[in-house]
Amino acid sequence: MRKVTRVSAIIDAKDLTKVYGGKVKAVDHITFHVTEGEIFGFLGPNGAGKTTTIKMLNTLASITDGTATVAGHDVKKDPGAVRKSIGVVPQELTADDELSGTENMMLMAKLHQVNGTTAKTRIANLLRLVDLEEAAGRKVKTFSGGMRRRLQLVMGLLHEPKVLFLDEPTLGLDVQTRSRMWHYIKALNKDRGLTVFMTTHYLDEADSLCDRIAIVDHGAIRVSGSPSELKEAHGGDIVTLTLSNETADLTPFFSGIEGVQGVTREGNTYRIKLPKTERALPAIVAGVVQKGVGISEISFSKPTLDQVFLDVVGRSMRDEEAPESDSAWENIRMERTR
Questions:
Q1: 210 and 227 in contact (C-beta within 8 Å)?
Q2: Could you tell me where in the chain the CATH 3.30.70.100 domains are found?
Q3: Who has the most CB within 10 Å: 68, 133, 183, 259?
C-alpha cells in the first residue's frame, strides 16, 4: 500500500443521522473522517445506509441529526459551497448518446460555469488523460462501455473538484477495462492529490485502490481501517466446506471444535475461521462424516476482504446488490442551472 501524506480531514462527519418518516433510521449516528489526498472506500450491502450517507454529504438529502463538513464547508449551512467543491460520477451512464464526447464535455463545462479557453484546455487535457483524444469527435452512442465510463469519469472533473465521489466506477466492465480504470483513478489521486470517496461491490477493487475502508451495515459503521489492517484483524485460515445434501444447521457443531474462531453459513456452504487449518481439519471432516453428511467441496484460503466482509456483515457482497440509484448527477446538474 502506497503512503499518502496526510494533511487534514477533507470530509468530517460526526453523529451523522438520517431518519425517514420519523421512524426509519437509515443512518444511525455515524462518525468518520476522510483525510485529504486519500482514496476512501465506503462498502456495505444494499440498504446498509451508504447511499443515504453519500446523499447527505452531497447535499441531496437533509441531515436529521449530527454534522458534516466537506472541503471545509458545513453541509447544512453552506450547501452551495459544498456542491462547488465536489465532483460526482454516478453509476448510471449519463452522457448524451447523440452528442460527441467533446460536446458532452462542453455541456458539462457550461453547467459548471467553466468557459472559454479554460474549458477548452481542461477538456483537451482530460480527454488525453483517459485516452479518448481520437474518439472525442464521435457520437457517444458509438463508444464501448469502457469508453463511456472513462468519459463519465472526466466529466466529473471539469470544474476541478477537491473531492470526487465515485459510485461503482467499474460496474459491468471486463477485467482489462476495469484495470485501466483503476490506473486512471490512481493517477488522479497520486498526481493531482484528488481525494476520492468511492463505493464498489468489487472487494478486490477496494483492496487495490483504497487507503482506508469503512464497512457499513444497518446504518452504522461496523469496522474501518486500511485493507491490510482489516485483513490482519480478521486473520487466520479459512476452510470453506460445502455439504452435498441438506441437513440441520451445523454451525453449533463447527463452533464447538477446538481452535475454531468463527463460522458463517450460506445455505449448505460453511466458512470456518481457524488459526491453523491442519489442527482442526481432521475433527471437522470426521464430525461431518459421523453425522452421515457428504462433503461435495472443500477449500482453504488466507484472509481476504471478502472474508472480512463476511465476518462483519454475516453475508457476502452479492453481485445483484447494486447500490440504490437516485441520479445524483442529475440533481447536481439541476442545482447548477437554477
A1: yes
A2: 236-302
A3: 68
Q: What number of other Cβ atoms are within 10 A of residue 319's Cβ?
A: 9
| Residue 58 to residue 106: CA distance in whole angstroms | 23
Q: 330: which residues sit within 8 A by CB, 6+ positions away?
A: 94
Torsions phi, psi for 190 (to 5 deg): -75, -50
Residue 255 to residue 273: CA distance in whole angstroms = 10
Please give the Cα distance from 159 to 109 (Å, whole number): 7
Residue 52: all three cell numbers together: 443515504
* 236-302 is classed CATH 3.40.50.970: no
Q: Give me the tens of pLDDT residue by residue for the chain, a chain 338 residues long.
A: 444 444 589 999 999 999 998 889 999 999 999 999 999 999 999 889 998 999 999 999 999 999 999 999 999 999 999 999 999 998 888 999 999 999 999 999 999 999 999 999 999 999 999 999 999 999 999 999 999 999 999 999 999 999 999 999 998 898 889 999 999 999 999 999 999 999 998 999 999 999 999 999 999 999 999 999 998 787 678 899 999 987 889 999 999 998 888 899 999 999 998 877 777 889 999 999 998 899 999 998 877 898 889 888 877 665 434 444 443 434 444 344 43
Q: Which three cell numbers stand for residue 327?
A: 441520479
Type of residue at 185: I
Q: How far apart are CA 128 and CA 139, in angstroms?
A: 17
| Domain spanning 9-230+319-337, CATH architecture | 3-Layer(aba) Sandwich (3.40)
